[in-house]
Amino acid sequence: MSPFRAIFRHRGAVLAIYALLLLAFAFAARGVRMDFSAEQFFPTGSQARRDYDEYKASFPKEDTQVALFWQERDGLSAAVFQEMRAAVDLFEAQGLYDVTWFANAPAVTEVRHKGQQSLRLDVLVEDQAPSDAQLDLVLASHRRDPLLSRRVWSQDQTVFVIAGYLRPDQNTDTRRKEVEGALTAALATLEAPGRALVLNGIPILRSRYLKMMATDQAVVLGVGFLLAGTLLALVLRSRSQVLFALSSVLPAYALVVALMGLTGKPITVLSSVLPLILVVISLSDNIHVLVTWRALRAGGAGDEDALDEAMRRLAPSCFFTSLTTALGFLSLAWTGIDIIVDFGIFAAIGIMASWVSSMTLLPALLAFQRARRDPKGLHAGWLTAPLAVAEALPRRHPRAILAAASGLTGLALYAATGLQIDAKMIDDIKENTPLVQEMRWVEGQGFGLFQANLLLQGGGDTPVYSPESLAWMERFQRQAEASPLVLKTLSLADYLRPVRRSFARDGQEGLPETAEEAAQLLMAADATFPGLMDDVYDPFGDTAQIVLWMEDAGTLATAPLLAELHATLERSPPPVERHALTGTIELAQSSFQSILGSFEASVVSVIAAIGLLMMVLFRSVRTGLIALVPNLIPLALLLGVMALFGYAIKPSTVIVFSISFGIAVDDTIHMLVALREVRRAGGDPEGALRATLHRTGKAVVLTTAVLVAGFSALMASSFEVLFLIGFLTVTALIFALLTDLLVLPALLRVLPERR
């Protein structure tokens, strides 16, 4: 007795086993958490990551700042000052520490005592209720102060910044959402005509990112399931069969989430769409089973016989289609980025698990349906019309089809030569969303949210605050600030100049002349203003940093600047024991290079692996190569579409190319397997091609339609990465269908047949 007949007869036991498995998977998955942090895209185990981790150990505040950007159309007044103080109180009430605004910002101020004028390091505004005149004087006298401009106010003093920091132990998703929600609600009471209040900073971006993701996923997944299920229902016209097809995928996703729980892997921006991906891809095999099963029943076969024949006929080809798709996802391992590697591995596991459930759970469910009624949904015109064209055109004009396909492929590849490699720090959210618009507004006011950081470590006879080191810092800053991408720089030298001026009896300008003088100034400043230089100097490790706030302009613009800074460090290294250029922008650049550098290897590896697999499947090098051709054309055309719409090569497009080929090749395998079986049964080649179209054509068109419907839901996402995965995958699937229906038959007619 075949295994499928056994499943048919013991369907109750099969369902009980799956119920127990689902309970076990649910128990294992109970601890799975969500994590959408950008650091997941950073390479682990590399020198760049080690430098970044070392930098964060000395300067942990970089990604914990919560900032309110306050723009006042009518300028600063005493009344506005008091409202700003209320906002400061709101920050402190949320447990933020080191809350800074222009009133308590440190600055060198002039004081008069007994008729004598002197300088001192003090806060800008000591008075709790300053007058308009006092505020005007403070702003005018410190307008060009490098420690204040583009940090506590904009260069034109129209935007003021209130900033505080989350404590390291509170920098969690839960706490970030609490702070963002409370501040957003409380600040609404301070809104007024002519005033703009923009709450921003990395913790705020992350919190709102999570909220966007939750809303987005509910819409995208819901729309995807609805579109795919509705389309399937319109064709099959059987609610039970649609439910069976969808239900058979559930154990596969449950297994994936269980494995994530057991391995401690979180749900990320990529793995969050695995339910939709697994459902629409797995439906491909289920549709072939349903169409074949219904055709056999309509031909007079009994329920058990029809199910057994359909499963035995399709199990091998469905296995290979699942395997090729899984290989497409596994090729993402070339990137070396944990979040992408994990996504590829879990997707591959889920796809192979869905094949198992399609071969066991689906027939067990179908065994409960005994109705002989066969609706006419599979005879819809939109299903049969493409097959009529596929039967006629390649037979009449095979060489013309191949010539047209070759010409279009050549044009697409030529257009692809103009593709550029470019990715931004905030690259996975569409530019028209409020989150990105606010971030761009902040950058437009001269404030940077993202940093490159030069870590400097002294040692022995070369302390990081030596005169030579301080002078080198200023030269490096001048070079960096010459780039329009660098919004502002800050270093230990920027602090020691005003500190020296305030403590010197004669108001002496310039940098300290000896390391001993610099050390004394550091101690005096810390005694007067504790924590003044914490952002740029760590005395415990004799470590300093130069901060470069940069515009999020994309790698196309940023990469040359970073390369120039690296070249400067090689030509003229700082006079310290060790240095390293790091920070989020530098590490992200390293990550992008790793992903994009793996682009060719990823695509070539999946093409080679799938080509070899098809040669093994068909036991023919020739057939394996023929099967590759109609699936390489869609990839070339996809490059042309990207060039046409102005899309750049970026991590999201690399992901699409790696998985699209594995998905697109599925229909080719089904058609060639069916053709082989028909030819073995005898008959002329032309008749075999027609019979193949009649056997598999409807399922091929329907699976493509369902996949397009499912993946098109991703195009409604607010996240650029998901939109591109949806749009480019849909485009590749449409091209793949056309090449399977037109180019593949034309190839088989033009090339001489070998039995």
Topology (elements, then pairings):
Elements: H1 3-9, H2 11-28, H3 47-58, E1 65-72, H4 78-93, E2 97-100, E3 106-113, E4 116-123, H5 132-141, E5 159-165, H6 173-187, E6 195-200, H7 202-236, H8 239-247, H9 250-263, H10 274-298, H11 303-330, H12 338-366, H13 381-396, H14 398-416, H15 434-444, E7 450-457, H16 467-481, E8 486-490, H17 492-503, H18 515-528, E9 537-538, E10 543-550, H19 555-571, E11 578-582, H20 584-597, H21 599-618, H22 621-645, H23 651-680, H24 685-712, H25 720-750
Antiparallel strand pairs: 1-5, 1-6, 2-5, 3-4, 7-10, 7-11, 8-10, 9-10
Helix pairs in contact: 1-12, 2-9, 2-12, 6-7, 7-8, 7-10, 7-24, 8-12, 9-12, 10-11, 10-12, 10-24, 11-12, 11-21, 11-23, 13-24, 13-25, 14-22, 14-25, 17-18, 21-22, 21-23, 22-23, 22-25, 23-24, 23-25, 24-25
Describe the structure.
With 755 residues, this protein is an alpha+beta fold. The protein has 3 domains: 3-38 and 208-369 and 379-426 and 594-750, Multidrug efflux transporter AcrB transmembrane fold; 64-200, no CATH class; 459-576, no CATH class. Helix content is 62%, strand content 9%. It is built from 25 helices and 11 strands. The chain has helices at residues 3-9, 11-28, 47-58, 78-93, 132-141, 173-187, 202-236, 239-247, 250-263, 274-298, 303-330, 338-366, 381-396, 398-416, 434-444, 467-481, 492-503, 515-528, 555-571, 584-597, 599-618, 621-645, 651-680, 685-712, 720-750; strands at residues 65-72, 97-100, 106-113, 116-123, 159-165, 195-200, 450-457, 486-490, 537-538, 543-550, 578-582. The strands form 3 sheets. Strands 7, 8, 9, 10 and 11 form a 5-stranded antiparallel β-sheet that branches. The chain has a 4-stranded antiparallel β-sheet with strand order 2-5-1-6, sandwiched between helices. A two-stranded antiparallel ribbon has the order 3-4. A hairpin with a 4-residue loop joins strand 9 and strand 10. Helix 21 packs parallel to helix 23 (651-680). It is elongated. The two termini are 32 Å apart. The model has no long low-confidence stretch (mean pLDDT 84).
